Amino acid sequence: MRIVLFGPPGVGKGTQAELLANHFHLVKFSMGDLLRQEVAVSSSIGRRVESYLKQGNLVPDDIIVELVYNFLLENRERDILFDGFPRNLNQAHSLEQNLAQLGQKIDFALELYIADEEIIKRLQNRLYCSSCGRIYNCLTDPPKKKGICDVCGQELIKRDDDEEPVIRRRLDVYNSQTRLLTEYYKELNVYKRIDASGSKEQIFKRICEILDGYIDKE
Ligand code: AMP
Fold first, then answer.
1. In a 3-state reduction of DSSP, which class is residue 60?
2. In the chain, how long is the greatest CA-to-CA distance?
3. Of ligand 1's atoms, which has the minimum distance to the CA of residue 84?
4. Is 120 within 8 Å of 164 (Cβ atoms)?
5. What's the pLDDT band for 116 if we cut at 50, 70, 90?
6. Strands lying side by side in the sheet with 108-113
7. Are 17 and 83 in contact, with CB atoms under 8 Å apart?
8. Residues of the chain with pLDDT > 70: what percent?
9. Active site residues
């Protein structure tokens, strides 16, 4: 089983990807997390991609495609959830081709959607744990102790790209490039659209209603 989860920044992809991976025992591949880790350790890839992340632009496809290919080879026997990949048609084609070489395909492409103004409000209030990656929202899903992760007790931080001008740029990139995936996956008959308003539990339930019955939870 191979699932693509996409949607505009701040729609809740990271949170839902974590819940789904645990619930259905999927390996989660989060491109944004992977790139941020490379930047944090200042690897050669990290140094190449840092400015793209800061400005809210897409990292060049050749870097992305190579990172994904290595992951696919290492996880060929596993069920995979792709979070934040693909982000444009070129990446979607390359994923399809790489999977075909392994005798695999995308089974579901799930798009989460909400209004742009709601996105900006969510992102401006988003914090995440620098250690375990758990995501919080100061308004709707705050930590028990201010600024501290409930799970691992580490400090919560704001992402560099969660400032309004960069958020607007990321939304533009989504609308001009990533949104094209909708038609692409509709043609492959794997597309489902999910209302991402409401609590994380409500959104999770909507996604489970689609996937239950297709994925063995054991
Ligand atoms: P995310 O954590 O998914 O919001 O991604 C954060 C940033 O990482 C994006 O704004 C891009 O700069 C970069 N990024 C993540 N996934 C991709 C991708 N598939 N292609 C290109 N850039 C990406």
1. coil
2. 48
3. 3
4. yes
5. confident
6. 27-30, 80-83, 2-6, 108-113, 191-195
7. yes
8. 99
9. 13, 87, 126, 159, 170
Q: Ligand 1 centre from 57 Cα, in Å?
A: 8
Q: What residues does each domain of the chain span?
A: 2-114+165-217
Where does ligand 1 bind, in terms of residues with CB under 6 Å? 9, 31-32, 35, 52-53, 56-59, 64, 84-87, 91, 161, 170
Q: Are 107 and 101 in contact (CB under 8 A)?
A: no
Q: What pLDDT sits at residue 156?
A: 96
To the nearest 5 percent, what fractions of the chain are helix, strand and coil? 50, 15, 35
Q: Of all atoms in ligand 1, which is nearest to the CA of residue 53? A: 12
What ligand 1 atom has the least distance to the C-alpha of 49? 12
Token digits for 149?
């992760």
Cα(86)–Cα(69) distance, integer angstroms: 12
How far is the centre of ligand 1, averaged over its atoms, from the C-alpha of 71 (Å)? 16
Average pLDDT of span 5-30: 95
Centre of ligand 1 from the C-alpha of residue 59, in Å: 7
Whole-angstrom Cα Rg for the chain = 17
Q: Which fold has domain 2-114+165-217?
A: Rossmann fold (3.40.50)
CA–centroid distance for 54 within its chain? 17
